[in-house]
């Protein structure tokens, strides 16, 4: 006679077990089940900066086309503060089911090096968030108010050496802040840093003449450059950008070691299942390949990128290391 432990499982037992798994939810290793369950409700794309800047524009363009692909609404929620860390903390604490995501520039990789410990709720951006995709990049550009009367770095340096000039940025610890400090070090000039609370406020200040110089992403500034309201002086890239092909780099104009760019990354809470991450990555990759999306992003000064999650993971690792070192060398910290 067979013991109970040797007896084959009955069909009724198997059916009961399957039903129980359905009720309690499939375990994490059942990636297919997770993928089929996602999305089951609205998806929120958190942007940790005010409306109007490059990250916000990119998020709204992507959200519009992502919604029909997911079959659920995709809304953009702006949660500015603490150099992207407030929004990052909000997403890190959300349910790890793919319904709450973060779209942030690489400011998030920099802020932990320049803000006090615990800023933004104490989020550990390298442990509490999971890279999903780097949908886009945007070059950084130094622009001037037309009233300053300069159109290249030679003219700017002549003015700067007389003293009294200031430059604006979207905030302390932003890539633009680092670009300004690297420019000061390389060119041997002294410029006062004036931080604003986001890209849009800093652009408004430059357009109003409140600040004569501004480091910003091409994404927010392109329309104002084309309209002649801001004068592009130099790109902080290794090479020229197709978005502003006639604008030389700082290196071309004799000011080296000012190479800073900005990428946009989509992140999920750390425990989000791999199958859900892969689904989101797949859908956003498809969205940014759409001709009208590419046209709208490029028109806003944002260059589509995409690729697997590892591309964003590599960006995050490199910038965390690089800006940690630069923060120490340049003494960059919250004012």
Note down, in words, how this protein is organized:
This protein is an alpha/beta fold and 335 residues long. The protein folds into 2 domains: 166 residues, D-Maltodextrin-Binding Protein, domain 2 (3-Layer(aba) Sandwich); 123 residues, Periplasmic binding protein-like II (D-Maltodextrin-Binding Protein, domain 2, 3-Layer(aba) Sandwich). The chain is built from 12 helices and 10 strands. Strands 1, 2, 3, 4, 5, 6, 7, 8, 9 and 10 form a 10-stranded mixed sheet that branches. Helix 7 links the parallel strand 5 and strand 6. Helix 2 packs across helix 10, helix 3 packs across helix 10 and helix 5 runs parallel beside helix 12. The N terminus is likely disordered.
């Amino acid at each position: 006679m067979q013991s109970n432990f040797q007896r084959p499982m009955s069909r009724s037992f198997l059916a009961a077990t399957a039903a129980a798994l359905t009720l309690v939810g499939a375990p994490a290793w059942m990636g297919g089940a997770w993928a089929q369950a996602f999305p089951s409700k609205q998806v929120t794309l958190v942007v940790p900066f005010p409306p109007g800047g490059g990250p916000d524009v990119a998020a709204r363009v992507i959200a519009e086309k992502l919604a029909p692909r997911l079959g659920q609404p995709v809304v953009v929620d702006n949660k500015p503060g603490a150099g992207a860390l407030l929004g990052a903390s909000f997403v890190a604490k959300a349910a790890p089911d793919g319904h709450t995501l973060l779209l942030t520039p690489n400011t998030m990789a920099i802020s932990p090096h320049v803000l006090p410990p615990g800023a933004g709720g104490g989020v550990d951006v390298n442990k509490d968030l999971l890279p999903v995709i780097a949908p886009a990049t945007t070059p950084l550009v130094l622009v001037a108010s037309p009233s300053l009367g300069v159109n290249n770095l030679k003219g700017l340096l002549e003015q700067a050496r007389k003293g009294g000039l200031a430059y604006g940025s979207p905030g302390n610890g932003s890539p633009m802040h680092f670009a300004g400090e690297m420019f000061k070090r390389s060119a041997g000039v002294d410029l006062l840093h004036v931080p604003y609370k986001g890209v849009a406020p800093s652009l408004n200040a430059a357009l109003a003449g409140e600040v004569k110089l501004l480091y910003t992403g091409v994404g927010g500034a392109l329309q104002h450059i084309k309209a002649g309201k801001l004068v592009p002086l130099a790109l902080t890239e290794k090479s020229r950008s197709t978005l502003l092909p006639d604008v030389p780099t700082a290196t071309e104009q004799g000011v080296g070691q000012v190479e800073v760019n900005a990428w946009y990354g989509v992140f999920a809470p750390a425990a989000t299942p791999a199958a859900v991450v892969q689904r989101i990555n797949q859908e956003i990759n498809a969205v940014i390949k759409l001709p009208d999306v590419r046209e709208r992003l490029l028109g806003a000064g944002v260059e589509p990128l995409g690729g697997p999650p590892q591309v964003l993971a590599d960006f995050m690792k490199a910038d965390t290391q690089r800006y940690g070192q630069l923060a120490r060398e340049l003494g960059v910290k919250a004012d």
